[in-house]
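Below is how a single chain appears once it has passed through the pipeline. First comes the sequence as given, then the structure the pipeline wrote out for it. We keep one example in the README because the format questions we get most often are answered faster by looking than by reading.
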Amino acid sequence: MIETLPESIRALYPFKPNWVKSGNYRLHYVDEGPRRPDAVVLPHGNPTWGFLYRNIVPPLVAAGHRVIVPDHLGSGRSDHAIHEGEYAIAHHAARLRQILETAGVERAVFFLQDWGGPISFGACLAKPGLLAGMVLGNTFWGAASDFHRRVYPWRGLHAPIAGPLLFGRRRVFIDGAKLGMPKSSHEGAVWAGFRLPFDITPGPGATLAWPRAISLGPGHPTQPLADAIWAAMPQMDVPTRFVWGASDPVFPWEEQGLAMQARLPRAREHAPTIVKEARHFVQEWAPRQCADALLAVAEEAFSRKVSHGR
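Resulting structure:
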C-alpha cells in the first residue's frame, strides 16, 4: 500500500485517496466529483494503475460527473497479495464490485481496456443493473487473442515453473509497457508514476498473475468467466462506444474489436474512433478522445430513464 505519493507524481495525479478493506487487504480508489449513485468508472489493466487515467478524470469531473478510479489488488496504491490464487479474475471482479458498493454506486459507465474489460464485465454479471454504458478500448473478454496463442514468450507464461522463473521479476511487465505507450510517457515524472508501485513494493504484484489468467481454452480457470461474458454480451443493451488503438498487436481491432462490435446490441450505433498511431494503452495516446466518448455515453446513460432492463 502506498499511503503518500511523491510530490512530482502527486502533481500529475492530485486526487484524494480513498480506501476500502477487502478481506486482509486495503484497496485504493479515487472518487472525484459529486457523490451521486451514477458514476463513470475507469478500471486499469496490466501492468498499470489508476495513474493511467490522470488526463481523463479532469474533463469528466468538469462536466459534472462522478468518477471512480480503482487500483486492483497488487497494483498501484493497493496492497499486494501473498498467493497467486488471490489474483484470480473472479476475485478481482468481486473486489471491484465491493469498491463500488462501498462508494454507493448503483449504475456505472465503464471504460474497458485490457483486463479492465473482463474484470468489469465480471462485476456487472454479478450485479444486474450496474452496467449503464461502456466505452471499449483495446480490451477482450477473457479468452486469449491470437497474439497470446502464437507468440513466444506469452505461452511460456502459463508454464507452472518456467513462467514464474522467467517472468516473475518485478519490472518485466512495466518495462515492456513502454512498447504500448507513446515516447512522451517514457520519461520524467510520467514514467516515474507508472514505475512507482514496482519501485516501492517488492515482487511483481498482479502483473504475473494477469497474463497467466488469460484462458487458452477449455479447462483453464478463467474460461467459464470468458464464456459467461461472451454469452451475456447480446443482453448488454446499453450505450456503447469504441476508442481503439489501431497499432496494437495484442488486441487488434480486426480481431477483438470487430468481434465485440458484432455481439454488443448497440455497438454499431456510432462509428468507432480508431486512433491510427495508438498502440495498446490508448488512454496514453488519445486521452481527449477517450474522455469525449465517455462524456457522450454518460450523457446518454444518465439522462434517460432506466430502460432495457438496466
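The longest strand covers residues 131-139.

See the next section for the split statistics.
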